[in-house]
Write a structure and sequence with these properties.
13% strand; 4 helices; alpha/beta; 119 residues; Rossmann fold; 4-stranded parallel β-sheet
């Protein structure tokens, strides 16, 4: 990442981001740098490691559970969703039915929630 590029100024816009993942690596520094501190809720299908020092903006979430997505969005006042959850080729080829569920149904769940809460 080019450190000469200034991070987005989120504080003045009061945007609350919801980042979805599925075993994708994006560390806390990069999310803080890109979106601002205190404005990001990061989620993943894996629970935060016990030795993690700051998991204040991290939550376990299964992208296949629409109700959990809706609860996360509503409870955190989310107004922007950045959807990264996917099973990519190597993992997806090992379990095609799961890849289809995550990559299709997961997107559908996020879109349904966004529509429901008027994002």
């Amino acid at each position: 990442m080019n450190r000469d590029i200034a991070p987005l100024t989120i504080r003045s816009l009061q945007i609350q981001f919801f980042l979805t993942y599925r075993r994708v690596k994006l560390n806390k520094w990069s999310s803080k740098y890109m979106y601002g501190d205190g404005h990001v809720v990061m989620t993943d299908i894996v629970k935060a490691p016990r030795n993690a020092t700051d998991v204040s903006n991290y939550s376990f979430l299964d992208i296949l559970n629409r109700e959990s997505i809706e609860r996360m969005v509503v409870d955190n006042g989310i107004d922007t969703i950045v959807h990264y959850s996917a099973l990519l080729s190597a993992v997806g080829e090992q379990n095609v039915p799961l890849a289809l569920q995550v990559n299709c149904r997961g997107v559908e769940n996020v879109l349904e929630v966004a529509k429901y809460v008027h994002i």
